[in-house]
Design brief:
The chain is an alpha+beta fold and 214 residues long. It has one helix at 2-41; strands spanning 52-66, 72-74, 77-88, 93-109, 114-131, 137-154, 162-179, 183-194, 201-213. The protein is elongated.
């Protein structure tokens, strides 16, 4: 009987943890959408968007899809970064370079709740973006390749420790809202897959940001 009680309490704790993570993800996604919603309210864009250089900043959530040993879980993290690129082909394509910092993510045992380690890192990407139209509101897809530099701390010696730099690929898409001749607000989702030694540490980012076109 004591064992059944303990198992029931563990399941309840696990479900509560999942619900807490989902709530935080939805909250962060809502904040990521604010730039686009705000941008739409002040939409005053020339009919013809011009090609050229741009730079901007992003912030949002990182949703870890780590392939961890049984019983281990990861918290939802945060990310922020900088971007710069060049729009071409009548504003229908862009070559972009990005830097994103992945804030420390705790690695934990599900039952009992116990900190096992930490994951942190940064990515440096070159990405090609293709746009569905050249209107003031543009949907886009992206593909990128670059490097991820990650550090994994192992507090209990379970074999997770690593300090590696590896090749990574990135796939995603988003929506941009152009508000005048210079400012662009956007929201974006992307999946990043590291290779080799960091192959088990995929993650998804949900971001909001702003660009300035020169």
């Amino acid at each position: 009987m004591p064992t059944e009680h303990r198992d029931s309490r563990s399941c309840t704790t696990f479900r509560a943890s999942r619900l807490d993570r989902l709530t935080r993800v939805l909250t962060l996604a809502g904040f990521a959408l604010l730039p686009v919603i705000t941008g739409c309210q002040f939409l005053d864009t020339p009919t013809r968007l011009s090609d050229g250089f741009y730079a901007g900043a992003v912030a949002g959530a990182s949703l870890e899809q780590f392939d961890l040993p049984s019983g281990l879980d990861s918290e939802t993290g945060a990310t922020f970064g900088l971007r710069g690129g060049y729009r071409f082909f009548h504003h229908r394509a862009a070559l972009e370079f990005s830097y994103e910092e992945l804030v420390v993510v705790d690695l934990e045992l599900d039952t009992p709740r116990l900190d096992v380690g930490e994951f942190s890192g940064r990515t440096f990407m070159a990405q090609l973006k293709g746009y569905a139209n050249d209107a003031p509101i543009q949907g886009y897809g992206l593909v990128g390749v670059g490097l991820i530099d990650a550090e994994i701390k192992d507090n209990l010696g379970v074999g997770l420790a690593a300090d590696e730099s590896e090749l990574a690929i990135k796939l995603g898409g988003g929506m941009e809202v152009h508000t005048g001749a210079h400012w662009t607000f956007f929201v974006e989702g992307a999946w990043t897959h590291p290779t080799d030694e960091l192959d088990d540490f995929d993650f998804i980012t949900v971001l909001g940001g702003v660009n300035y076109r020169f």
